[in-house]
Write a structure and sequence with these properties.
The complex is a heterodimer of chains A (about 375) and B (about 250).
Chain A (H helix, E strand, L loop, with lengths): L1 E9 L4 E3 L1 E6 L2 E7 L10 E12 L1 E6 L1 E2 L2 E2 L7 H11 L2 E8 L4 H20 L9 E2 L2 E4 L21 H10 L4 E6 L6 H10 L3 E4 L6 H10 L3 E2 L15 H8 L4 E5 L7 H15 E4 L11 E5 L2 E6 L2 E4 L2 E2 L6 H12 L3 H6 L3 H6 L16 E4 L5 E5 L6
Parallel strand pairs in A: 1-5, 6-9, 9-10, 9-11, 11-12, 12-13, 13-14, 14-15, 15-16
Antiparallel strand pairs in A: 1-2, 1-3, 3-4, 5-21, 7-8, 17-18, 18-19, 19-20, 21-22
Helix pairs in contact in A: 2-3, 5-6, 7-8
Chain B lengths: L1 E5 L2 H23 L2 E5 L6 H8 L9 E5 L1 E3 L10 H13 L3 E3 L7 H13 L5 E4 L22 E5 L2 H9 L12 E5 L1 H5 L3 E6 L5 H9 L17 E6 L15
Parallel strand pairs in B: 1-10, 2-3, 2-6, 3-5, 6-9, 9-10
Antiparallel strand pairs in B: 4-8, 7-8
Classes of the chains: A alpha/beta (about 375), B alpha/beta (about 250).
């Protein structure tokens, strides 16, 4: 047994001062305050005076990091990226594919599906690494008009047959799918994916308000990097963004790096979706954690300079890390750390239907981040390991 | 070569799809996979629709090659042949092994890359149309009957470009690209089986000159008469000018 103590703990719904958190066999046994219970004599004590314990971060949209892309064939790519993520407080992530030739998407899904399965079955890794918990399929079912840097040549209209191929290749490990609801055939695929427990996320879309609402009726429940690669909000033609921001059935994520969205738009977004339905993602690319230069993104390349990833003259993914996203929310919207942490832990866990992650409560997995009062990562514990 | 004539293009499309499906199923049964060449045009719609609904084909074992494509036309343009191929065949069936001709990329690079994949193994069946000027793929008259290159970069003749405006893919002829990538005549003829789907009155003159005139580069589809296993599917309209009065199949 390990007993964790610190200045505070965010479950994240509750705040506990002078907490005592007990971990056994990689799971959380008990969460209480030291005023209620003595530190057990039979265990190890990990004391973080002055710091705060929060759940491990969950990134449901990430393409790469530490010089590696999740679609790389190199066996060392995911482990290298996962070690980097652990340093930034991320304990769980959803490797995210980009639009590429179908055979490349299929082989990536096959590899990533195996990686998810392996992570599920290994109780404790020899080294501290973030765990892949499922795949996010971003593209090819997206709009030509709002494709961003996804290659036009490889975009496809959604059909049940094509979705089935992706599903089979992933061994049923697709947990999130970004789709443009205005594409012919989208409604049928949205319904089918939702039936299989996939979080259907609207994105890379030029949908009107009515089309977006129909998609939510069909089973879509989330929105991918809201505002980016979407039909812009217009007061007489409100479009997909107005639907996403106003529909209580829909959660939504943003890239809070201060580049993809103006800080004031982050604030506006948070006012609309609130602490319950806002989610932080990084949309991070292989360039994250690396110096400026040229880096792979799926089947193509991009150039990174001063925090901006550019391809074809367009803004590509980010070099954001989740800990920085949490701090940015505090800065841009004047939110408290506890509220900001929720957007990177409990909310993405709910969206992706993870019962035992994103929360520091009994029965949950012992994925813990130790944060300084300003939100700097001081330690990451994954499955009880990492001290 | 067989000529079959049907009452209308829907019956024609269904009959052609039955033969095509049989060929695909046999190839998968005998060799574990079927390699096919697909054409995209207004004339192929009914046929492709019927083919995608054919039972008993495991499309995971089908590899499809692209017959022809304009150079310089993006894939989201309504006239893009790869857009049609993706929408009318690939996504409907969930084919995962397909080779599109990227008309937006460097054409010589594309024909080298796709040509290599195409020539690697024999093709089981090729689906074709025939143009109003008698072309197969974009081999307008005079067609090159000699070259062994799998794909060619060709200049489109005016009749060919006007046909595309007539089919309403483009607003006027100035918008139709002047160059295209085309599978070569010899490459098409290397297929084990060829199935040409040719409905509509506007094709009647081309049908007459290709199947009753001389075998000549000036009537490109006439070369199909030299293939041992080619079947031409006509409807009453496209067969209207044939003097020999090909028997109407029921």
């Amino acid at each position: 047994m390990i007993a964790f103590t610190a200045a505070a703990l965010f479950t994240p719904l509750e705040r506990i001062e002078q907490p005592l958190l007990l971990v056994e066999d990689g799971s959380i046994l008990e969460v209480t305050s030291r005023a209620h219970r003595e530190i057990p004599a039979n265990g190890r004590v990990a004391n973080f005076p002055g710091d705060t314990l929060v759940p491990g971060f969950i990134d449901m949209h990430i393409h790469g990091g530490a010089g590696h892309d999740v679609m790389e064939t190199n066996d060392g790519a995911l482990p290298a990226m996962e070690r980097f993520l652990a340093c930034r407080g991320v304990s769980s992530y959803f490797p995210t594919t980009v639009t590429a030739p179908v055979d490349m998407i299929l082989s990536s899904l096959d590899r990533l599906g195996h990686a998810v399965e392996t992570a599920e079955n290994s109780s404790q890794a020899a080294e501290l690494r973030a765990n892949p918990l499922g795949i996010h399929l971003e593209g090819p079912f997206i709009s030509h008009r709002r494709r961003g840097v996804h290659p036009a040549e490889n975009l496809l209209n959604p059909t049940p047959e094509m979705f089935e191929r992706f599903w089979e290749a992933s061994q049923g490990q697709i947990r999130v799918m970004t789709i443009a609801p205005e594409l012919p055939g989208a409604a049928e695929v949205i319904t089918e994916a939702a039936k299989r427990g996939v979080c259907v996320s609207l994105g890379h879309s030029d949908a009107t308000l009515a089309v977006a609402r129909d998609a939510v009726d069909a089973g879509a429940r989330h929105s991918t990097h809201t505002f980016n690669a979407m039909r812009p909000l217009d007061h007489r033609d409100p479009g997909i963004i107005a639907e996403v921001l106003t529909d209580a059935r829909v959660s939504a994520d943003i890239i809070a790096d201060g580049i993809h969205l103006d800080p004031t738009m982050v604030k506006l977004f948070l006012k609309a979706k609130g602490a319950e339905q806002a989610v932080l993602i990084t949309d991070a690319t292989s360039a994250t954690g690396m110096p400026d230069g040229s880096y792979p993104l799926g089947s193509s390349n991009m150039l990174v300079k001063a925090g901006r990833c550019m391809a074809d003259g367009r803004l590509a993914g980010s070099v954001l890390t989740m800990d920085a996203a949490v701090r940015n929310v505090m800065k841009f919207a004047e939110w408290e750390l506890q509220q900001a942490v929720r957007l990177a832990t409990l909310n993405p866990a709910r969206v992706t239907r993870l019962d035992t992650r994103g929360t520091l409560t009994p029965g949950a997995r012992a994925d813990i981040v130790v944060l300084s009062p300003s939100g700097e990562v001081k330690n990451t514990i994954i499955g009880g390991a990492g001290l | 070569m067989d000529l079959n004539v049907f009452d209308d293009k829907v019956t024609l499309g269904k009959a052609a799809a039955e033969q095509a499906a049989r060929a695909i199923r046999n190839a998968i049964h005998e060799r574990g996979q079927a390699r096919i060449i697909a054409a995209t045009a207004a004339s192929q719609l009914e046929f492709l629709d019927a083919l995608t609904k054919s039972p008993g084909i495991d499309w995971r074992n089908v590899e499809v090659f692209h017959l022809d494509e304009y150079i310089g036309l993006p894939i989201d343009h309504p006239g893009s042949f790869r857009k049609m191929l993706v929408e009318q065949l690939i996504t409907k069936t969930g084919i995962t092994r397909f080779h599109l001709l990227d008309g937006d990329a460097d054409a010589s690079d594309v024909i080298r890359r796709v040509g290599k994949a195409l020539a690697a193994e024999p093709v089981d069946i090729a689906f074709l149309g025939i143009g109003e000027n008698g072309h197969i793929a974009f081999n307008d008259p005079p067609a090159d009957f000699e070259t062994e290159e799998p794909y060619l970069i060709v200049t489109l003749d005016e009749a060919c470009r006007r046909q595309q405006v007539g089919e309403a893919w483009f607003a006027d002829i100035s918008q139709v690209p002047t160059h295209a990538i085309s599978m070569s005549v010899r490459q098409i003829l290397k297929s084990r089986e060829i199935l040409a789907v040719v409905p509509d009155t506007r094709k009647a003159l081309a049908v007459k000159s290709c199947f009753e005139g001389d075998i000549s580069p000036m009537a490109p589809a006439s070369i199909l008469r030299t293939h041992a296993n080619a079947t031409i599917y006509l409807d009453k309209n496209s067969a209207a000018l044939l003097a020999t009065g090909a028997p109407v199949s029921s």
